[in-house]
Amino acid sequence: MAGGWGCPHEVNDICTKINNLPCDPGMKGCVLAGRFVFANEEKNQRLREKQARRNSIETDDETGNHP
Questions:
Q1: Range of the domain at 33
Q2: Cα separation of 56 and 40, whole Å?
Q3: Which of 11, 12, 46, 47 is the most exposed, having the fewest neighbouring CB atoms within 10 Å of its CB?
Q4: At a CB cut-off of 8 Å and minimum separation 6, what does 43 contact?
Q5: Number of domains within the chain
Q6: Cα(25)–Cα(15) distance, integer angstroms
Q7: Contacts from 5-9 at CB under 8 Å and sequence distance 24+?
Q8: pLDDT tens digits for 11-59?
Q9: 15 touches 23 (CB < 8 A)
Q10: Banded pLDDT at 66 (limits 50, 70, 90)
């Protein structure tokens, strides 16, 4: 039995969530963007931004600096 998953927004290789564009996992607006790491580093920008914000908050908490 093969493993895998299916996106509920993908129908016949079309993304019904993003203006019926061809499905491209991780593209802007994709429910996967910012939640997973992709081989294509361009698709990881949102994830990297979230990680940087989290690291900044953790650093502030450790040093006692709060905005």
A1: 10-63
A2: 25
A3: 12
A4: 25, 26, 27, 33
A5: 1
A6: 9
A7: 7/31, 7/32
A8: 999 999 999 999 988 888 888 887 888 888 888 888 888 889 989 888 7
A9: yes
A10: low
